[in-house]
Amino acid sequence: MERSTFVYDGDCAFCTRCAEFIERHIPTGARVLPWQFADLAALGLTEAECEEAVQWVGVDGVRAAGPDAIARLLGDSGPLWRVAGAGLRFPLVRAAAWPAYRWVARNRHRMPGGTAACAVPAARRN
Fold first, then answer.
1. Does a structural domain hold residue 126?
2. What gap in Å lies between CA 69 and CA 97, rounded to an integer?
3. From CA 79, how far away is CA 51, in angstroms rounded?
4. Count of domains in the chain?
5. CA–CA dist 111, 47 (Å, integer)
6. Which of 38, 47, 56, 69 sits most deeply, having the most CB atoms within 10 A of its CB?
Protein backbone atom coordinates (compact mmCIF):
# COMPACT_ATOMS: atom_id res chain seq x y z
CA MET A 1 0.00 0.00 0.00
CA GLU A 2 1.37 3.40 -0.98
CA ARG A 3 1.54 6.03 1.76
CA SER A 4 2.04 9.75 1.88
CA THR A 5 5.35 10.85 3.39
CA PHE A 6 6.20 13.63 5.85
CA VAL A 7 9.93 14.39 5.85
CA TYR A 8 11.82 16.29 8.57
CA ASP A 9 15.42 17.06 9.54
CA GLY A 10 16.66 14.09 11.57
CA ASP A 11 19.86 15.92 12.54
CA CYS A 12 17.83 18.44 14.53
CA ALA A 13 16.81 17.37 18.04
CA PHE A 14 13.87 19.83 18.08
CA CYS A 15 12.60 18.50 14.73
CA THR A 16 13.03 14.93 15.95
CA ARG A 17 11.04 15.71 19.11
CA CYS A 18 8.26 17.16 16.97
CA ALA A 19 8.29 14.06 14.76
CA GLU A 20 8.10 11.84 17.85
CA PHE A 21 5.08 13.86 19.01
CA ILE A 22 3.44 13.28 15.63
CA GLU A 23 4.10 9.55 15.78
CA ARG A 24 2.73 9.27 19.34
CA HIS A 25 -0.24 11.63 19.20
CA ILE A 26 -1.39 12.28 15.64
CA PRO A 27 -3.09 9.28 14.00
CA THR A 28 -1.84 9.63 10.43
CA GLY A 29 -1.33 6.99 7.80
CA ALA A 30 1.67 8.91 6.48
CA ARG A 31 5.25 7.79 6.92
CA VAL A 32 7.14 10.23 9.13
CA LEU A 33 10.85 10.00 8.47
CA PRO A 34 14.04 12.03 8.55
CA TRP A 35 15.23 13.17 5.15
CA GLN A 36 18.63 11.67 5.89
CA PHE A 37 17.05 8.19 5.63
CA ALA A 38 14.55 8.93 2.86
CA ASP A 39 14.94 8.11 -0.81
CA LEU A 40 14.77 11.76 -1.82
CA ALA A 41 14.99 11.06 -5.54
CA ALA A 42 12.02 8.71 -5.37
CA LEU A 43 10.08 11.37 -3.45
CA GLY A 44 11.08 14.09 -5.92
CA LEU A 45 12.82 16.10 -3.20
CA THR A 46 16.26 17.62 -2.85
CA GLU A 47 18.47 17.95 0.21
CA ALA A 48 18.20 21.73 -0.08
CA GLU A 49 14.39 21.58 0.08
CA CYS A 50 14.54 19.28 3.09
CA GLU A 51 17.07 21.46 4.89
CA GLU A 52 14.83 24.48 4.27
CA ALA A 53 11.56 23.07 5.65
CA VAL A 54 9.58 19.94 6.45
CA GLN A 55 8.14 18.34 3.32
CA TRP A 56 4.94 16.50 2.42
CA VAL A 57 4.69 14.16 -0.55
CA GLY A 58 1.16 12.84 -0.93
CA VAL A 59 0.17 9.61 -2.61
CA ASP A 60 -1.79 11.86 -4.97
CA GLY A 61 1.47 13.56 -6.00
CA VAL A 62 0.75 16.77 -4.08
CA ARG A 63 3.89 18.26 -2.56
CA ALA A 64 3.99 20.88 0.17
CA ALA A 65 6.58 22.45 2.45
CA GLY A 66 6.67 24.11 5.88
CA PRO A 67 3.27 24.94 7.38
CA ASP A 68 1.58 23.76 4.18
CA ALA A 69 3.17 20.33 4.75
CA ILE A 70 1.99 20.37 8.36
CA ALA A 71 -1.54 21.25 7.19
CA ARG A 72 -1.44 18.28 4.80
CA LEU A 73 -0.22 15.95 7.56
CA LEU A 74 -3.00 17.10 9.88
CA GLY A 75 -5.53 16.77 7.08
CA ASP A 76 -4.48 13.13 6.72
CA SER A 77 -5.11 12.48 10.43
CA GLY A 78 -7.95 12.02 12.91
CA PRO A 79 -11.05 14.26 12.96
CA LEU A 80 -9.82 16.88 15.44
CA TRP A 81 -6.44 17.11 13.77
CA ARG A 82 -8.16 17.50 10.37
CA VAL A 83 -9.94 20.58 11.72
CA ALA A 84 -6.58 22.03 12.77
CA GLY A 85 -5.17 21.25 9.33
CA ALA A 86 -8.13 22.95 7.63
CA GLY A 87 -7.63 25.99 9.87
CA LEU A 88 -3.98 26.17 8.86
CA ARG A 89 -5.09 26.41 5.23
CA PHE A 90 -7.22 29.56 5.72
CA PRO A 91 -5.50 32.37 3.79
CA LEU A 92 -4.96 34.68 6.78
CA VAL A 93 -3.74 31.86 9.01
CA ARG A 94 -1.50 30.55 6.24
CA ALA A 95 -0.09 34.03 5.67
CA ALA A 96 0.85 34.26 9.36
CA ALA A 97 2.04 30.65 9.55
CA TRP A 98 4.90 31.08 7.08
CA PRO A 99 6.71 33.89 8.95
CA ALA A 100 6.15 32.02 12.23
CA TYR A 101 7.50 28.80 10.68
CA ARG A 102 10.59 30.60 9.34
CA TRP A 103 11.21 32.18 12.76
CA VAL A 104 10.99 28.79 14.48
CA ALA A 105 13.26 27.24 11.83
CA ARG A 106 15.88 29.96 12.37
CA ASN A 107 15.64 29.57 16.16
CA ARG A 108 15.08 25.83 16.48
CA HIS A 109 18.34 25.42 18.40
CA ARG A 110 16.75 27.58 21.13
CA MET A 111 13.49 25.61 21.26
CA PRO A 112 12.72 23.00 23.92
CA GLY A 113 14.78 19.92 23.09
CA GLY A 114 16.90 21.89 20.62
CA THR A 115 20.69 21.68 20.62
CA ALA A 116 23.52 23.55 18.93
CA ALA A 117 23.38 20.91 16.16
CA CYS A 118 19.88 22.18 15.32
CA ALA A 119 21.13 25.64 14.34
CA VAL A 120 20.74 26.60 10.72
CA PRO A 121 24.14 27.71 9.36
CA ALA A 122 24.54 31.50 9.52
CA ALA A 123 24.97 31.71 5.74
CA ARG A 124 21.43 30.34 5.25
CA ARG A 125 19.69 32.54 7.85
CA ASN A 126 17.74 35.43 6.32
1. no
2. 11
3. 30
4. 1
5. 23
6. 56
